[in-house]
Predict the structure of P-loop containing nucleoside triphosphate hydrolase protein.
Amino acid sequence: MFTEYPWLNISSSLLSSIFILYAPLEIWRLRGASIKVLPDFQSHIKTVLAVALSGVQLISLASPTVPNSLRDQIPAIASILASSELFVLLRLGHRKTVRPSTSVILYVGLSLIKDLIALTLPSHNLTPIEHSLLLIQVVLEAGLLVAESRSKVQNLHPRYQSLTAEERTGVLGRVFFWWINPVLREGYRDVLVPESLPGVDRALSSKVLRERVIHAWAERSKPETKFTLPLALFKAFRRGFLLPILPRFSLVAFRYSQPVLIGATIDFIQQRGSQDERVDSGYWLVVLTGAIYSGLAISTSVYRHRLNRLQLIIRGALVGLIHARALNAESSPVTNGKALTLMSADVDSVDTAAEMVHETWAQMGEVLVGTALLARQIGWFVGLPLLIIFGCSRMSAYVAKHLQGRQKDWSSATQRRLSMITAVLGGVKSMKILGLEEATRSIVSDLRDREIAMSKRLRWIMVAYNASVLDLIIANALGIFSPVVTLVLFAVSRRGDAVLNPDTVFTSIALLALVTHPANMVMTLITRAVAALANFDRIQTYLLKGSLLDQRVLVPPNSVAEREYNLETGQRLAILMEDVKIQPSPTSQPIMHGLNLGIDRGSIFMCSGAVGSGKSVLASTILGEMAPKEGRIVVADERIGFCSQSVWLPTASIRGAICQGTAKVDNDWYDTVIEACGLSPDLQSLVDKDRTWVGSGGINLSGGQKSRIALARAVYSRCSILVLDDPFSALDGEVEDHVVAALLGPRGLLRDMCTTVFLITNSAQYYPLADKVVLLHDGQAQVLDPRDEIILSRAQISKVNPSQGIKREESKSNSPALADRKRMDYAAADVSRRTGDLALYGYYFGSVGTFSMLLMASYTAIYAFCLTFSSTHIIIAPRSGSTLHARLLGKIMKVPLSYFSTFEIGNVDGIATIRASGWETSFELDNIMALRNTATGAEVGVALNMIIAANTTLLRLVEGWTSLETSLGAVARLRSVDLNTPPEGEDIGNHNLSSSVTSPSTSNPANDGKSTLFLALLRLITPQTGSIKLADIDIATLHPHTVRRRGFIAVPRTREEEDGISVSAFADRGPLYLSCPELLEKPISTFAPLSAGQMQMFALAQALLRVQAVSFQSPSPSAALDPGHDSISANYNSADTGLKPNSKPIVILDEASSALDLETERRMQKLVDELIIQKGFTVILISHREGGLRRGVGLESDVVVLRDGRVC
């Protein structure tokens, strides 16, 4: 056809031949595919265009201008055959594929480019007929390309409507990102909301990523090396890692086409040919320019898009892998805090690892290719820039050698801070009760300062790298001096020759730039790769730590093993322990040894013992959470219902917390469980009934309500075995009697279901309900009949049980709807932030400080000339981080308790309960779905790819601006908390009812006002009417922290254990501290995990330290015993606190002995009497145990019983 340009005929024949060979394969693949697109008009348009295109090609073949030789007719014949297959493929593919056909688009698009070149080539002399036919063919091809590239979303079968926009878009739409245009248009018109964002395709599904990486990690090669985790990621997502290779190769090719373009341009300027030749050369120069820079733009966008997807894959896979490991790891504050840090800080550091890998090989390839091309221009002088590169690499080697350890230290410091913050937020109620806001703030600030100090060690070495004399060589000399020195020396060597050819000079300059830039990048990537490897090593170390090995032997019901056991014992197996030795750690003493215990199916065993005797450890061993050092444990069912003494509740509604792990709620069974656990009156008093939001850690509920919800959850699970660790300690007598009778009585729910119950309790009055009682003492278990004399003699303490009915107080818990509304309000406020909000810039600049801002501005100006601006980051980043952290910490420490009731803290907790109940799959699904519909408008901007980069400076400007806007999103949230969160103590009102608190003990049923009174005394809640006075001072006039720290010494029912904090960290240092400072300065994490009873003793020890400190500060013994000063506070300045000088604080003990056994409780009461009451302190002892009250405070003390919110 194109006899004047044989290459056009060759390209046409080659393109048609490839399509002719490939199209049948795709047609065969689609033959058995299902129909995905409903009948529409678009398919008819494609058919008409394809038929018309074939007709035009037939006419062209029959045209008299076509030579008769077969060689000249082959291109036309091949095109007609290809068009015929194109017709079939269009008809079949339109109905059976969701996406437009990639092969059709590529074939038609390339044919269109070929025909456009043939049509517009200046020297191509076409006859009018040929020109007309070719023009018609171009129009038809363009129309067919547009028709095939259109999305089929409007006519998709309903089953495929849920596919994401990217999954429905053809190759052109994905290359040019047309699928994101609707989101951009909506973003320009209105504020984007989560519903506006496109979904994530199935390849990026959290479930898919999690399953694949877990499988790859399980099949990893051994022994492990520091590259095991990266190699496992590559094995799991090999296709994702390989996809960026082709566009990166294309990018290298197009980049090194630029020197060719420069040479061709110079030749065009210098050539002296005819006008026709110059026009033809100019035409091809324009085509070459368009092809190179279009190729650069397209290959860059495709490469960046695939890298971004790979980054999401790595992040999602690592988070899923760490989460899966956390579900199988030992449950402890240290492990949980480490998992949080690894999922955040460490994953942030390694999710760009794939980009570093691809950039490393690509940049090294560019250096080699550029060097080879440069050698053709300047010969052996090409070794000069390589010599400079080698010399400069020494600094990179030094940085790489010292970088990994410092990166690990920084990450470890971040982990300690996050662990502490998680523990503080989880126990914020206890912290406020103890008046430890300032102490906690100081400790967290110290951890933050240490974290910043560790970051400075890393940053200073980077500053040494970036700002040193060697860096001047690396960053500047390679880019500036190398071309000059190389060309000068090359010119000197040619001193006797002719003048340098401009083609050689400018082509060499371009090649030198292309060589020196990737050389720079390679040395920069070395330091980044070393830092990433340090974080990979931390993650891999966590993953390789021994998982929790369940060494229990499972003997399912009706199995052969169970029948053999039944024949031997004549009983039905539930739990069997033979010669069990329990030792928590290799360095600790065994807690139990030679333990033999058999529990029959359907029986109720009650376990009792002193604090620290191993009751909770025994429960953990039954659950498989702790492996025995010796012996064997046999269970009939590995799924065991568990109610922990330290209640864990998910952040959900009450109904959701009880029905955790079930896909469908059995309403009849749910109502039965609610009634049996005594929750019906509580739910009736709530506005949203069982839809009430429990809050983070159950902060919206009382201790008794949390215990009963956890108990109801265990019962609702219908496990054949239940392990209950002292679930009744927070309940009053009447509620406890109801729950025990409904569950464990002769007609109790668990009795009717023949559920095996292992109940840990020191409430001896319920021993007669047990089949057997297990007493733990000195590492041994004594199994007794509940009717034995030794058992009956222990039932001495009863709980207060008023004869009148109990009226529940109305809870002020936030409903899920309210909590959701608040979260949506915060999200809307955040998403409505506009990029032009100057207040955010002012807020951030204020956190940096005037001096730092001036320094930054000065260096910014200098950076334009000297490229040294990055050095100032060593000042700005630590200072802004420290200041913003201090502001946020200070604000959080001062907010009222109600602020925490609507927020999820975000921690790793409840692992033992989840594993015991078999809810791992449910929580895996929750983790997979957790981020759905949570993205904001700022995050959309980060996800958008740069399509065409006009030049490097503009690209960096846009990237820098995008990063700034992303960072401002975090600054906006910090500013919102700082400005909109009210601190405690600002709203001080007058009350007209006065009620002085002087009685040393109170007792009441749950929810009759005990917790409310306790919180009101400490100003954690504000009374609506009336007033509370201490020594004739209305506490409403005092700051809440002053009331808690100087007016009271409070011991809450529960106390959180903070990892890494010393025993005395929150206590005043008095005589007791001076007697054993080495012991009290040890971190809590160095001791064995403390049980609930031990934590209560620990809290009392802290109170005793404060009491001793107050007594030590008193100016004289007489003043300490002065009746006029026995109301409140110690030797504090009245001008600062508003309290009388030298007065003593009131000591409040809230259920301080609820988790203690009888003997330990007596010892504690003796300590309270000798070290607190006899020192002249007023004590308010809150307890459910009436007998314990009488013995603990004496008959001469007042006992106040609260009922219906009133004093009886």
In short: The chain has four domains: 6-186, 203-544, 833-903+935-979, 994-1207. The longest helix spans residues 275-327.
